[in-house]
Amino acid sequence: MYAVLSVTDKTGIVEFGAGLRKLGASLVATSGTAGLLRDAGMDAAVIGDLSGVPEMMGGRVRAFHPSVFGGLLYRRGNASDEAEAHQHGIPRIDVLACNFKDLVADDGIAGALDSIDIGGPAMLRAAAKNFPSVLPVVDPADYGEVLRALGAAGGEVAAVDPAFRRSLAAKAFGRTCAYDRSIQRILDTTGDRE
Q: Which InterPro entries did the record assign (predicted)?
């Protein structure tokens, strides 16, 4: 089991990572989150270790790889998906913790464009789409409940209460929707400040 952690709000992420490790998860994180986990004494690979492709273009490209998105999206128990995952060495990602801040128009359009998170919302949407098999966690306030639910389910996402999994997915899609609205507001209101 892999858990991918990519968070701007790092509240509780060390404790969450430690709890996931106790449940047998291998931690994979974006560089800043991985550094924090390592500083706390945990093994944490960076996403490039999982995909075999380093971060590129100033961090703009790091998560877009079949090893990440395939691991989030493949349907567990689907013979074709399982065979392709095995054939291509795609890991089973069971938990995605991902959050990001709404954008503000302080730096005009150019600054806003540089700050737009593409990979985080895309990973979150992928995990939420596959909520029967993946826990998409967008709110640090949910970390404790996720750990309790996973622990009670013996670390098996499919054994976690379906209503809880669905509620995490709904919250994740709500967050990506709000994030897109923050981008729209900036593009609508920054005028000529390019």
A: MGS-like_dom, MGS-like_dom_sf, PurH-like
93, β-bridge pairs: 2
pLDDT confidence bin for 31, thresholds 50/70/90: confident
How far from 23 is each of 9, 26, 34, CA to CA, in Å?
Answer: 23, 9, 18
- Which superfamily does 2-189 belong to? Methylglyoxal synthase-like domain (3.40.50.1380)
User: φ, ψ for residue 45 (rounded to 5)?
Assistant: -80, 160
Distances (CA, A) of 68 to 49, 95, 110, 190: 11, 12, 29, 34
The residue among 171, 185, 167 whose CA lies nearest residue 102 is: 185
pTM of the model: 0.89
Cα radius of gyration (the chain): 17
178 pLDDT higher than 60: yes
> In the β-sheet with 26-29, what is the strand arrangement from edge to edge?
45-46, 26-29, 2-7, 93-99, 135-137
Residue type, 194: E
